[in-house]
Structures
1.
Amino acid sequence: MESSKQISADLKSILLEKHLNFELLNTYKGVPFICKAALEAVEAESARFGLHPASAYAWGTVNHTLILSEGLLEPIEACLQQFNRAARAIWVDRFVYAGSKLSNRKELRVEPEGAVEILLEADGEALTAHLADLSMRGAGVRVPGDLPPSFMQGKLLDLRLRLPEGELKLAGKIRNLTKLEHGTRLSLEFTGGVADKTLIVRFIMRRRAEITAEMQAMAARE
């Protein structure tokens, strides 16, 4: 049985056993938050959850979620199919067992506010990208237009990043490339030692506080 069908069958069993209390782990601009939810229905390969009123505010920004429950052997990743704000309910589908993805989400990777440029240099060739997110171990960047051939997966490069907290010069490696509609997203890993990570720490802590305050403001408006 395909994983999505098997997981749907597991969820139906949990529903019949009245084990209805779930936690849905999401991120908003990189900051994780837990949403309390109750399993209400399972149909075909989708499920409906009713959301706790205090947890319904950020679902308009969510594409995927991790489903957690004592009734499950391991977390499940699902895609958001529909969100009904008025009914405080969501429908999710395309289930897969999360495996290591749960541990991968433990790393705080925050998004910047507004456009932050980052200069990438490899083999004497330079290009300007925009910071998508930043963590202590790496960064996601978006490169508009065509990517030069020298910027390939596994390539070592130098980065220059100017944050509000100050300028950073780092060595990095391209871990992954994802084609976008108008460019490419690069997943970069910082290599070697960073002489002073204080600026990164300050940036992450400041953005986490700002994003958390933004979520609280959204919750207050519900």
2.
Amino acid sequence: MRFIITLLLFCLPASALAGQRAVYRGGDGKGMTIEVADDGSAVVRNQDMPDNYGILKDGQFYLVSREKGEWNVARAEDLAAAFDQVLPPLFKNLFGAASAKRPNSRGFRVEAKGKRKILGHEGQVYAVYGFDESKPKESKEVVVSKDPELQPVGKAMQEFMVSTTMMLAPFLGKAAAEIGGDIRTMFTYGTPLSIEGSLQLASFEKADIPASATALPAKPKTAAELLKEIRENSAKM
């Protein structure tokens, strides 16, 4: 009986796989892998940093890292709340329903420039201004797709980019929150297929993503614990 069940599993068509795996490549040969399980949870990894990644689970995004063999997990919203205690309030509207298309002081704007297919996905090409506020007249080309099949990948990618940008708050200050807002605005146009000078979708496939892939490796730290760590690290700088 065990042999028959195994044989049937190997004979299942690829369409029976409910998960997704998207691989993005960067110009430097590095890139990002996003795996989405059938329950909607996801894991996002920079391929050159295996011990630092993000997990989207039950509508919450977590940043995961390992230092000296010990795993650390922080919910992005708790980390934002902790930063707001030691910096001028920056991230109050960066998470949740408050994040929507909106203008900001950095000159961020988007102009449609036609259409292009990438890996069979129809994409809208945009010239995006404001990535570098010191060069307001320069734009980057971004190709995004409204394909519903790509939306779970886009959601995970968005939260990872916003959360990792937030980690730069001690160095960027207010700009970190503004860049996070720009990222959210860009994702309202669709899931990126290509970001000039950064990433391009290299593969997208159905995949069997086990629940263990999106499991938290440790208990998330509380906002109070994160605040204590931030203050201790600031004192050492």
3.
Amino acid sequence: MKKNHRQRLALGSGVLALGLILGQPTRVFGQASAPPDASCRRDYPIPTQSINYERAFASETLAPDRVSVNQKTLRLGATEKSLNSVLGASSTVVEDWKPRTAPQQCEYLLALLREHPNSMHLYRLKKLQLEMMSGMFRVSEWQLSGIGRLRAFFHKPSATDAEASYLYYLTLSPTSPGKVVRSRGRAYVLTREGVPVVT
């Protein structure tokens, strides 16, 4: 397959997470009775399903820990300005800066999981929940031509601190599951055929 480096996008955790959670059974996390100050440690009280990566890669929202665009890698911890620079476009504000306590942020993450109740999001969001972040939060989004949209979630401990991205959502433009193939000799690498190529 001919590679066009100016039109390639690679997803970090999509490759890594395949080896960790593909094929796990459906799990239901029970409701835990806990006081509000323990909300960051409780189990998520909603059912989740193991992710089908081929189907997810065809049309669902992914939660990668890094995204490579035009040979430049976007990692968690980036500022909004640096993402604008790499993507060559300005972001659109989805949720402007607002303060949240750690329990409020844990409830926010739970609401995100309700939107995508699968194992990829469960493990990513549970890890974030245990960090018990508080402070200021913002969400911005970029349209990626021919690919879909990238949404970045930002946090800063206070209004005067610099922000850092703590979560990415990549919602790919729908394609046929038949166009998602596993790379030969690399069972945990998926590629979406088309222009641009997405790996």
